[in-house]
């Protein structure tokens, strides 16, 4: 593959994927104000290097929930990967395992969470809470049994964002079953459906879509899920310090500052603009992870210096998957690790744990 720049990666993926699948991945909601701000606002922060530090050895490691990881990267949950590559989440899982990066498997994967677990190393499960609590609880039990190490509840999708490009293209990969791996294999869902999804595919997809979103999901439901599992629970999609505070009050274990890569609420604050106030509110009591807009090592350094404990990669690894399957994802990860290491050395920082706000200025 040998593509080291995000723009080249994106161009190459575009030439391989059909126009509608590519647009689904690349685009944001509305007129993409927030999608653009995620990138632009990261660039407003500049690194202010300090030299003559001993950077002969660099330590990229972090620790989360009592476990050590070689790098501060995780793979963000991305649904519908069956439209990107035939080996979809399985290729992603194998690549991440080779590199030692944890994955966060989406609820809406094209294969089941058990099939993913069989290929993956460290893994967390991302939960779109269903409007049907029995299905939600079944997903949590299955994740526990399949060895997932944490539950990530995505809170920024009470409904699908206004995705103008997909609406224009009339493109909805979930209607093709690309997001049905966990639903179709779920015993509770199957019982409610009262038929095999393979026998009545269209009805099964329609039924899944009815259950998929839970616009009524509230903090009381979060409290119920807190009681339902001993796994660490993180909330993904936090942008307001008061929600971070509430997450701690509800005894949750972590949060992910994210605006879903600009795919949900257009016009909302960029992820990097939201980060500092949330880090201040949390005050180190629970881990704060970050995503939306990470495209290169300098972006990672900025997010970590502003107080994130780890970052999630989204679209970059999806493009790697499109270009060259498992090997493509691995190359993207290798490049991100190399870039971070070089960025830290040239900024005069020898450990991720030494990154702090003093390294940055906002222009
Ligand atoms: C094609 C696509 C599908 C996604 N699917 C999910 C999902 O199933 N669950 C979820 O919590 N986030 C999902 N996300 C959001 C990502 O987890 C992540 O927040 C986002 O990609 C970060 O932005 P970036 O790609 O610009 O770095 C998806 C993002 C993309 C691009
Ligand atoms: C109706 C299915 C929605 C799948 C959502 C996947 C996702 O999070 C995305 O951003 O796209």
TrEMBL record:
<dbReference type="InterPro" id="IPR012133">
    <property type="entry name" value="Alpha-hydoxy_acid_DH_FMN"/>
</dbReference>
<comment type="similarity">
    <text>Belongs to the FMN-dependent alpha-hydroxy acid dehydrogenase family.</text>
</comment>
<dbReference type="InterPro" id="IPR037396">
    <property type="entry name" value="FMN_HAD"/>
</dbReference>
<dbReference type="GO" id="GO:0050040">
    <property type="term" value="F:lactate 2-monooxygenase activity"/>
</dbReference>
<feature type="domain" description="FMN hydroxy acid dehydrogenase">
    <location>
        <begin position="1"/>
        <end position="363"/>
    </location>
</feature>
<dbReference type="InterPro" id="IPR013785">
    <property type="entry name" value="Aldolase_TIM"/>
</dbReference>
<dbReference type="InterPro" id="IPR000262">
    <property type="entry name" value="FMN-dep_DH"/>
</dbReference>
<protein>
    <recommendedName>
        <fullName>L-lactate oxidase</fullName>
    </recommendedName>
</protein>
<dbReference type="Pfam" id="PF01070">
    <property type="entry name" value="FMN_dh"/>
</dbReference>
<dbReference type="InterPro" id="IPR008259">
    <property type="entry name" value="FMN_hydac_DH_AS"/>
</dbReference>
<keyword id="KW-0560">Oxidoreductase</keyword>
């Amino acid at each position: 593959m040998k593509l080291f720049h995000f723009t080249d990666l994106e161009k190459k993926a575009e030439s391989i994927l059909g126009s509608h699948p590519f647009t689904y991945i690349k685009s944001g909601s509305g007129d993409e104000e927030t999608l653009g701000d995620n990138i632009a606002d990261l660039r407003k922060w500049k690194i202010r290097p300090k030299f003559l530090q001993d950077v002969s050895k660099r330590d990229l490691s972090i620790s989360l929930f009592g476990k050590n990881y070689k790098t501060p990267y995780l793979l963000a949950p991305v649904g519908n990967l069956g439209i990107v590559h035939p080996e979809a989440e399985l290729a992603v899982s194998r690549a991440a395992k080779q590199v030692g990066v944890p994955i966060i498997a989406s609820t809406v994967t094209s294969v089941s969470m058990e099939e993913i677990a069989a290929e993956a190393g460290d893994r967390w499960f991302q939960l779109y809470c269903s409007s049907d609590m029995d299905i939600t609880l079944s997903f949590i039990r299955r994740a526990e049994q399949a060895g997932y190490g944490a539950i990530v509840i995505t809170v920024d999708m009470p409904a699908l964002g206004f995705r103008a490009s997909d609406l224009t293209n009339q493109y909805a990969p979930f209607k093709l079953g690309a997001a049905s791996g966990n639903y179709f294999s779920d015993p509770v869902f199957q019982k409610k459906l009262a038929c095999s999804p393979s026998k009545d595919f269209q009805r099964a997809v329609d039924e899944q879509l009815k259950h998929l979103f839970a616009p009524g999901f509230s903090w009381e439901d979060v409290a119920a899920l807190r009681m339902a599992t001993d796994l660490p629970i993180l909330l993904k999609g936090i942008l307001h310090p008061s929600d971070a505070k509430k997450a701690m009050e509800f005894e949750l274990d972590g949060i992910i500052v994210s605006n879903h890569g600009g795919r949900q609420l257009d016009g909302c604050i960029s992820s990097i603009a939201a980060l500092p106030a949330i880090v201040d509110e949390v005050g180190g009591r629970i881990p704060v992870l970050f995503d939306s807009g990470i495209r290169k090592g300098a972006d990672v350094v900025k997010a970590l210096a502003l107080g994130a404990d780890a970052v999630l990669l989204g679209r970059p690894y999806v493009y790697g998957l499109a270009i060259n399957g498992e090997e493509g994802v691995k190359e993207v990860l290798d490049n991100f690790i190399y870039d971070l290491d070089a960025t830290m050395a040239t900024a005069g920082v020898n450990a991720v744990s030494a990154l702090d706000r003093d390294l940055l200025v906002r222009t």
